[in-house]
Amino acid sequence: MTVPLRVTVWNENVHETTEPAVAARYPEGIHGAIADGLAERLPGAEIRTATLEQPEHGLTEEVLAATDVLTWWGHVAHDRVSDEVVDRVRRHVQGGMGLLVLHSGHYSKIFTTLLGTTCSLDWRNGEDRELVWTVAPTHPIAEGVPSPIVIPQQEMYGEHFDIPAPDELVFISSFSGGEVFRSGCTFTRGHGRIFYFSPGDQEFPVYHHPHVLRVLANATRWAAQPDRPRAAPTIHQRPEPDWFLDD
Amino acid sequence: MTVPLRVTVWNENVHETTEPAVAARYPEGIHGAIADGLAERLPGAEIRTATLEQPEHGLTEEVLAATDVLTWWGHVAHDRVSDEVVDRVRRHVQGGMGLLVLHSGHYSKIFTTLLGTTCSLDWRNGEDRELVWTVAPTHPIAEGVPSPIVIPQQEMYGEHFDIPAPDELVFISSFSGGEVFRSGCTFTRGHGRIFYFSPGDQEFPVYHHPHVLRVLANATRWAAQPDRPRAAPTIHQRPEPDWFLDD
Amino acid sequence: MTVPLRVTVWNENVHETTEPAVAARYPEGIHGAIADGLAERLPGAEIRTATLEQPEHGLTEEVLAATDVLTWWGHVAHDRVSDEVVDRVRRHVQGGMGLLVLHSGHYSKIFTTLLGTTCSLDWRNGEDRELVWTVAPTHPIAEGVPSPIVIPQQEMYGEHFDIPAPDELVFISSFSGGEVFRSGCTFTRGHGRIFYFSPGDQEFPVYHHPHVLRVLANATRWAAQPDRPRAAPTIHQRPEPDWFLDD
Amino acid sequence: MTVPLRVTVWNENVHETTEPAVAARYPEGIHGAIADGLAERLPGAEIRTATLEQPEHGLTEEVLAATDVLTWWGHVAHDRVSDEVVDRVRRHVQGGMGLLVLHSGHYSKIFTTLLGTTCSLDWRNGEDRELVWTVAPTHPIAEGVPSPIVIPQQEMYGEHFDIPAPDELVFISSFSGGEVFRSGCTFTRGHGRIFYFSPGDQEFPVYHHPHVLRVLANATRWAAQPDRPRAAPTIHQRPEPDWFLDD
Description:
homotetramer, alpha/beta, Rossmann fold, nine-stranded mixed beta sheet, 25% helix, Trehalose_catabolism_ThuA_prok (chains A, B, C, D)
């Protein structure tokens, strides 16, 4: 890796700007908490943030072209994300940009577009404790975290989670109510690596949890392909046999 | 299975109506050839056809609601398929309707929408022989066909085929030029089972080939879930712990 | 399927013959309970049982050759199963016989031999309730059972379960203690289909639970290939190009 | 990675010591050619070789304990590898040692033991050209090699290759005769990462091919986990609920 890792932390930033309790929990926004956590764990990385209210949601062609990994947090404003920006992000993912989709981002346009399913699930905002168990102990995303990660208070996300069978299932969570959830899943779309990680909520300080932040840092490294020229797969006509001998 | 299997064979039906050579090869259209082949191999099944030029492309809500498995062939007119119909088909697939995507259907709106990738590939319309090798010999879709299936003349479809890693890789093809292709792949989206099968072209009589038709009949049976009520996964709030005890 | 489905239910049958409480719970042995449950749910099937203390553990060449699906329950006597019989069973699985490995069978010689891993796990024999959640709702093994299946009392089996990534993950269980387990997994080895299902213990009446028995019946149907000649894959020299044209 | 990568290149070394033509092709043995190729591409790595005729085949407990990745080439002498050494290698793989199984190593005791299948295939030692196509373009093992890699002369290895469905399918090969082969496959067993790569034969100078050596170097890096303490998964009894709170 010859250049610094470039990360863009995206957040809709609505709860933080409209609910004092959330603002108190995340004084610099969920994006600020994630960016700080990544900066601490990825020394040398260039980390910027972007939010919904910015022009083009802060995700211009230039920003994405200079982003190795994009993290995505959204909840109440999925439908305010413009289709044009979603399409641009999709193109960049297919071209090799890494994407981390977080928690309620399961219902974002970009995630459902890339996965082709409804991404629906069961949920309860109660008094649950979440335990995050590693089921792929050799996966680099699970490196350095205990199994289980104990999250004292969390929103319950339960099966059935309507996703395609993931390429790799890294984590399974359980909740006090007995529900389970495939909470850490990898997918590939085109040249891009995608990781979905469900722990994290505006109501709880999950993005201050050191093991959660470690997973996000691991996943950022895993999803990054800084040496790959950004280009989605394309169709090729090969009229001549043995065309590959000149390659 | 208490009711007859209900199959709808869809075709854009453009080559057959504009090119005499194709019309001669497929006098009842590619859809007619496929429908005949399925009828012969799926006794008792109700098989209908639908084409692009019909109102709503012949794929009304009523037709889809009465379809266990839809087969899809398109090539030059993908962009003439209305987004509304694509969205309707996607909903039905997620709700449990089986979908067989054939050959140049790899670039159809419905396939790229469900897969989330570009579905691009390499191709050459030359003098290739295609060999279709079974790599999942216990899969019901491969039942009763030799490995390889020999197709004397075919368009070459080669890697890289930009699809997500399939749930199951059933067939791999090679071509005279040495190219290879993941030619038989299964996917699941929501409650629906999807099979992509690449052999088949308007320029060659591939849809008269008995082993190709056998694969399509096998795949139709595999993808059908006639006893499942048609409903896509949905979100559920579960406010009460132990909510499942009443189920 | 032109012949009746032939099932052999194997059990080490040690707890039942040495512990009165287990004998009271399973008067005809765990094998008897499973055989009865399958017989009720698979009308027309020929179901026999076999146990450790029989000559060749009841698994002669003749018995296996006449078995479409073998179910395996063992616990304290894994090391009393002869290597010769294990080898014979392995050959039949690779040749197309279905295999259902149940509960503590995770540590059997046949399972570890076929999987290539230690198959170790976490466990606690306490007061746990097990919930069995479906994560592959279109899989035939999950047909007709609620999600979750509620098992009031069960031994806890938890991650990390040291198995290869399964072909298909059908069920995930949680326990009162918060542990999770990949409790329903499919694998393929050679021509044989394998299903591991963890619910079931000598200390609890799990094999009288109707939904557990339904899963076993579904899995039996899924694993059976009665029309396949019993033969493991073998090496072939193909000295002549185009050897397949005569096939 | 705080210590140098430690690689042991194992070879049965029989062809080279009994057939002058092979000795001429590989003057330092196939192991020598592989070791040189890795040394050039993995600067700083400690690369040693070991062969069948050495005491304990050169694979003592001490050697394996000091090996991050073991590469395995064997062909005519699989049955001369002692079961004790195979068992030792298996334990180390399950404990986290990487394993690269090469070409005719498909039939080695260590590979069939870890995979649980016969690993049989089709073959022809003729005049075939092999083309190695990348089907997982984002996989680190495929980094920096063209698709296809062109190998002018090679033994044909064809489907059906009797392996479990691989975790990841990285390469598919085709041959002049039209056969195809899943030539680059990853598997996980316990804590160990395994890569099978079929190109390579004693009759052809394949281990002097720069792209083949690049794949082996990539795979070595991918399989290595130098910071993981060598330990296979083990069973744990967890008698107390919330045992994980002290972790």
